[in-house]
Amino acid sequence: MTSEYSTTVETARTYYNSDDADNFYAAIWGGEDIHIGLYEKENDSIFDASHRTVQKIASLLTLNESTQVLDIGAGYGGPARYLAKSSGCHVDCLNLSEAQNQRNRKLNQEQDVADKLRVIEGNFEAIPSENQQYDVVLSQDAILHSGNRRKVLEEVKRVLKPGGEFIFTDPMQSDNCPEGVLQPVLDRLHLYSMSSIGFYTKTAEELGFEKVQVIEMTEHLVSHYDSVLQELEARYNEILKICSCEYLEPMKVGLRHWIESGKKGYLSWGILHFRKK
Predict the structure, then answer these.
(1) How does pLDDT run across 193-250, given as a tens digit for each residue?
(2) DSSP assignment letter at 211
(3) Overall number of domains in the chain
(4) By C-alpha distance, which of 232, 191, 217, 221 is closest to 271?
(5) Cα–Cα dist 124/269, whole Å
């Protein structure tokens, strides 16, 4: 299986399969979502803020019972369950972590939506789906883990029907980010680079997508990682029972790098929405 993945993707797979990572994200995010939230108040919970991002994305789409959706890098499947419950659409959850996929399937059964969701173990650099199969492809804060993000967009275009929509969020560097300043962030994520809004917009255009809209909301990235750090520090002794100190201490350092880089304007985040011509 390893040979099917690029080095960057395989690194992400190994990380998210670890007990430390699985326990941390399930506990801190509440077991539904693993992505950046939208914050309205300082005391918003990570769970509520993360769910608000899903609701925002859903509000930009027209979904019904016949809509076929693919969520790439689906994590625990929280967005897919919300879309299925709110619109009746069918969602395929493509994800590389067996640990997350197991939790996803369990939650689908518990929430009585297993008939509308299919969990697929796989890689978004080589989507295991037929051409022109989906009306919508969704992703939340996952594509940064690809070592070939253009390939991911090519695969998305391949599996989308003509007129299909691609909507996603991704932690990115700003278009004017100075070279080298994000190395601490990249090192923490085992990445060689980050994309930018300019990269995604240009690449999507080259591949034959038309831009629907780009909603830049970087301030929420800073708020989110600040909230995660505060939650971790407040619940440290509790989380230490399910995660190792060797995992949690570098996590705190990494979160501080995210916050510092975001405040300096080196990072970017938002909703990018494209349509296949």
Answers:
(1) 999 999 999 999 999 999 999 999 999 999 999 999 999 999 999 999 999 999 999 9
(2) E
(3) 1
(4) 217
(5) 20
**Lookup: tokens for 265:** 């304007």
What is residue 137's three-state secondary structure? Answer: strand
Q: Which residues contact 61 (CB under 8 A, 6 or more apart)?
A: 136, 165, 167
178-206: per-residue pLDDT in tens? 999 999 999 888 888 999 999 999 999 99
Q: Are the C-beta atoms of residues 191 and 258 closer than 8 Å to each other?
A: no
**Residue-number span of the structural domain to which 232 is assigned:** 2-276
Complete DSSP assignment for 28-43: HH-SS--S----SSTT
Cα angle value 140/145/148 (rounded, 5°): 110
Q: How far apart are CA 44 and CA 68, in angstroms?
A: 32
Q: Of how many residues is the chain composed?
A: 277
CATH number at residue 63: 3.40.50.150
pTM score over 0.90: yes
Residue 68 CA to residue 177 CA, distance in Å, equals 37
